[in-house]
Amino acid sequence: MPNLAREPTFLPLTVTAANTAVDREAPARSGARVVLRRAETANRAAADCWTALLAGCNSNGRRVLSSRLRELSEATSVYAGTQWWLSDGAVHRHRVAEAEGRIDEAVREGDGAEFAEAFVGYDQAVATVVVLAQNKVTQSRMGSPTT
Hints:
- This is Sugar ABC transporter substrate-binding protein.
- This protein is globular.
- The protein is built from six helices and no strands.
- With 147 residues, it is mainly alpha-helical.
């Protein structure tokens, strides 16, 4: 029987990718752990915001989400590496920013359907960056000539 008391999950791909990166990360590095913590915090904020949207109220959950998403995006950019984020990763940076903007707009408009749709795009964009960054780390450890 499913657990009906469970909160909705808005960042399943990102949380999974970050968990995988944490498992593979060298103990001295903590970038993936920071991304994971920020993703879990953003997911809780999204669940609170979703509840507020469904209830039609302007609770703290709606006001906090934007900053939690920015924190996750920032942690992701640091994990990916500033140089990559600003050069080869620019297309991903734009996807993350665009999806983040769509979520903010949906929250302002109280549009639950747009909120859910925008979160799918945000989750996919952030998770992609985490996976690409993890692949870069793995390749550099293996001494791959592609890095």
